[in-house]
Amino acid sequence: MIELTPKNIQLHARAGNKEEAIREAGRLLVELGCIDPGYIESMLAREQQANTFLGNGIAIPHGLQKDRELIHRTGVAVVQVPLGVEWNPGQVVHVIIGIAAKSDEHIEVLAALTDVLDNDSMAARLAQTSSAAEIILGLTARQQAGAVVEELAGADFIDVFVAGKAGLHARPATHFAELANTFASTIQVRFKDKAANGKSMASLLKLGVHGGATIRLLASGPDAPEALRALAAAVADGLGENEETEAAIIPAAHWEPGGEIPSLEGVSGAPGVGIGPVFHYGVERIETSEESRGADVESATLRHALADAAAELQAIQADVEQRSGKGQAAIFRAHLALLNDAELLDEVYLKIDSGKSAAWSWQQAIERRVAEFRQIENERLAERAADWNDVGRRVLRLLVGVKNEGPVLPSAPSILVAEDLAPSDTARLDPELILAICTAGGGPTAHTAIIARSLDIPAIVGLGAAVHDIPAGTVCIADGAAGRLYTAPRTDDLESARKFQQTLAERNDEANASRFAPALMLDGHRVEVVANIGKLSEAAAAVEAGAEGVGLMRTEFLFLDRDEPASEDEQTEIYCGMIRALNGLPLILRTLDIGGDKLASYITLPKEENPFLGVRGIRLCLQQPDLFLPQLRAIYRAALTGPVRIMFPMISTLEDLRAAKELAETVRAQVGAPPVEIGIMIEVPSSVIMAPELAREVDFFSIGTNDLTQYALAMDRLHPTLGKNVDGLHPAVLRLIDMTVRAAKAAGKWVGVCGGIAGEPLGAALLTGLGVEELSMSLPSVPAVKAHLRKLRFTEAQDMARLALACATAAEVRNLGR
Q1: Cys-Cys with 288: which of 96, 359, 475, 726 at CB 3.0–4.6 Å?
Q2: Would you give the DSSP letter of residue 725?
Q3: Looking at the structure, do residues 679 and 605 belong to the same domain, yes or no?
Q4: PTS EIIA type-2 domain: which residues (predicted)?
Q5: Secondary structure of residue 274 in the 3-state scheme
């Protein structure tokens, strides 16, 4: 939303005629720094070409499009003429809204005028009011409420599916808003009966969009089509959330007490066991005064506090990125976005201009937002109230000059107990001193829990108010994996828990220390453990993690988030870089797998009722050879420098496989490359049923259990309520895997798995028992899975696999690992 403050408004003006009124609006725009004085003449010239009278006493003069170079920045100026001015014969105007439109952000203000135009009493109030605030609210109230019903007039739009379980929470909303702000067009996002400014992260959050929802993206302006394509592709690609989703696959073991112990039950926030005395951490409310020292002084104070807070957040972001990676540091990028939220600042400055102090105005605006977010039904989005609270307290502390609020952190190793912890508080915790975090509130998807996991601090959230009743200094056992705080452990319990701690530490150290050793089982059977990657830098990271190659290179990530496809030369360079980084280890390149939940902005596909059953994967490649052939040439050119395998995605028929192989062979001959192994993804039931025929025509299979599970169970794995039932260890899926392996072995071909269950210890063991020879997984899973397999006999894995095939439910299968 463009800035609209009392400085944009002139009350009780007088104008003898329309020209004087327009010049007055233009003069105000010049004072605001929006336009060159020459643009006023353009506004007058425009009036000769078109009538800018809207009705109900409102006119919107603006300049000619050819004179946009005279605009310094987009803005509006509101001139109120209570006595009225004749605009055209029979048309009297009381409110003149002068527009300097460098882009189309002003449309948000114009959209609000539809209410005024249809509301005689509101128009009359705006014409006579002595309050700039009332005019501002009249022109912006619908955006602030987040409940726009009408769509942007004449806007282009597209409906998109929000993948993942979390929905549009802080980090993806930040990602969306940052991308939206790179376009000149006005961007609006609609969900149910609400709409939000697509360039405001906070406005997006208030929509309460959950995972699996469909939202409408609207754009109006000079680059609307480009904006919609880029934003739709970004939403389909997860808005930067893939890293976190893949990182938390492996379940953690928890401590089992020897008998009944008094305890409090919460929710697991981060695995691990902490043993030590309780330290209560509290934050007191900062008191503020409404009394103002003058609007200019208070505004300056707020600007300085915002600048200092931004510097603090940037420092925290850099520190967290160094310690825990970009994924966790993105939380504080979201905090910076909240700090600069236009709607928030508009509200605060409005209160300051009405005679309130900066601290009081800021506190009121923040507390209103915290209350709003706590009422959102989506649990994960409701937890973002903690982010607003965190940002709010940071600025408030600077505004009132509080250096240290609340108790200091413990100076000796302790279990930290709190009502809740702000993410920035969690990020600055010292893992050497904080043995565990236990909060009365919060949830497992809150940023506090995410950061605790990245710092390897056990955490339990949602313990309830009873956690505050534990006397300070009480020695407790906090089991993060079990989500349980044992409040009165006996001496033997403490000893048992410490032994368990040592066991966990030894397991982690052992797994990391031996990550380069092969996954050789106790009876000599070897399983190849490789990595799923999506970019060049991850090839070297895969080797460092202990992977024995790359079982899945998702080449589509070279095609997404860009305006044109990756060229043949660019792809060749990247593939060759991966070959060099792997230094002889195998590299499987999956050809372009776009469609379904992954779209590229430059690929135009007809609207499909169910894109997961439509043109995706190999089907799209065969229909668009201008994308497919350059990629095949790049792969074969790379094959001249080192070992490469090709894998075709979404093969559902023998005809598709043969067509793809024919094109590949033609390209290979043109390039003069040696033959390479060609395999296919087994992702749909038809490819399992046809596995005997398919196996005769390929060198290997790689089973994509994520897609195979959803197609086998007829459940969308991204569905908000059904998604929890889409378990790759369901007996139906395991039986399909068993059929696939048997067909491949009969033809003398090997089988790998590159779906999520390959990265779980139990899943890895069952797949191995079924005869899968290669397991491909996300990088963090590699050391632990290799270590787990080394502790098993192949015969044990086979026995467990037979039991799993005989199970009736996924729960029964998972109980086999307990």
Answers
A1: 359
A2: G
A3: yes
A4: 2-143
A5: strand
Query: Which of the four pLDDT bands, split at 50, 70 and 90, describes residue 811?
Result: confident
Instruction: Considering the candidates 447, 576, 621, 788, report the single residue annotated as catalytic.
Output: 447
What are the CB-based long-range contacts (under 8 Å, 24+) for 741-747?
Answer: 741/770, 741/771, 741/772, 742/771, 743/691, 743/692, 743/694, 743/695, 744/691, 744/695, 744/700, 744/701, 745/771, 746/692, 746/695, 747/692, 747/695, 747/696
pLDDT band at 284 (very low <50, low <70, confident <90, very high): low
Examine the domain organization and report whether 693 and 790 are in the same domain: yes
- Within 10 Å of residue 735's Cβ, how many Cβ atoms? 16
Active site residue 576: no
User: Looking at residue 367, what is its pLDDT?
Assistant: 80
**pLDDT for the residue numbered 401:** 78
Catalytic residue among 169, 210, 730, 788: 169
Mark whether 747 and 678 lie in a shared domain.
yes
Rounded average pLDDT over 199-211: 75
Q: Which of 62, 94, 175, 335 is catalytic?
A: 62
**Which amino acid appears at position 311 of this protein?**
A
Token digits for 48? 């000769």
Round to whole Å and give the CA distance between 486 and 274. Answer: 10
Which residue is catalytic, options 34, 576, 621, 754? 754
102 and 190 inside one domain: no
Q: Where are the alpha helices (DSSP H) in 402-535?
A: 423-427, 447-454, 491-513
Per the annotation, the verdict on 62 as an active-site residue is yes
807 and 683 co-located in one domain: yes
Count of structural domains, the chain:
5
Cα end-to-end span (Å), the chain? 54
447 is a catalytic site residue: yes
Instruction: Indicate if 280 belongs to the active site.
Output: no
For residues 355 and 340, give the distance between their C-alpha atoms in angstroms, rounded to a whole number.
Answer: 22
Q: Which residue(s) pair with 439 in the sheet?
A: 418
Average pLDDT (225-241) is: 84
For the question of whether the overall pTM of this predicted structure is more than 0.70, the answer is: no
According to DSSP, the residues that pair with 139 across neighbouring strands are none
72 is in which domain, residue-wise? 6-145
Provide the H-helix boundaries in 696-818: 705-713, 731-746, 761-769, 782-790, 794-805, 810-815
Contacts of 214 (CB under 8 A, 6+ apart): 159, 160, 161, 162
pLDDT confidence of residue 169: 67
The answer to whether residue 565 is domain-embedded is: yes
